[in-house]
Amino acid sequence: MNRFLISLFAVPSLLTLIQSCAVNSPSKDASTQAQQTHQMNHNSGDNLSAHHQSSTHSHSNHSSESASLTKAQLTKPSQIAVNQPQTFLIEIQDKTGKPITDFETFQEQLMHLIVVSEDLDVFEHLHPEYDGDGLFQVEITFPKPGSYTLVTDYKPSRMSEEITLLNAQVPGVQLTSSVKINENMSQILEDTQITLTSSQPVLQSGQEVTLKFNLKDAKTNQPINDLKPYLGEQGHLVIFKQSNPLTKADYIHAHALKNTPPDEVHFMTNFPKPGTYKVWGQFNRNGKIITSSFWVKVS
What we know:
By secondary structure, the protein is mainly beta.
């Protein structure tokens, strides 16, 4: 898509990485990223890029802002509406503002976009389309008013994997209700029963842990045998720590371990701080993507 698409939006203004977005006129959120090692989890809210290494671990963050390589800008519609699909533009630039034009495919996509509401009730995993000249476009539908965090994950050619947090504010009346935390570790999603267990009886911050998802057929109560790869792996895991506002330090992304039973998907990760976290596990059962979610408490 040519750059004239941007003219469909009002003139955007740059915002910082984790600032709230204005809703009366379109704007751009600018964020810078620093290199980080791709091992356990995103532990620092200031560093914004990751080396892509083992598929058995989650992202980890160890470097400083001085190593920043790129920045991302979000262009939003002039008026964000609830329950209406709308197009958002994400432009990737180098430190000087020049568009980055070449990207590498990882996990079968050029960019992964995670959209979560501030209360962690809403979750979406999308894949923006690349239109060239550093510009991605994606259609997002927000189901309710409130503040949303957009996590972009991309890898410029011959560079480190980059993680960016952007924000979108959806106008409207927000219901004032406390977040309901369901501590049930088993749920049925249509024809699949998913149960979450861990390698530790009590989750401890700063300790490596394996999260285990067991999948059974809800009708027969038998282990499933039709689990297919999702984004090149047995499953996909995203974790956010309950926090207000959500920051880089609250985000964890893990990759599935290999050589597990056919009805189980395991992820190795590390919760950096005590608190309450929400875990989303995504799986491909015979071509249909299943997204499970669980709350866990970490001491």
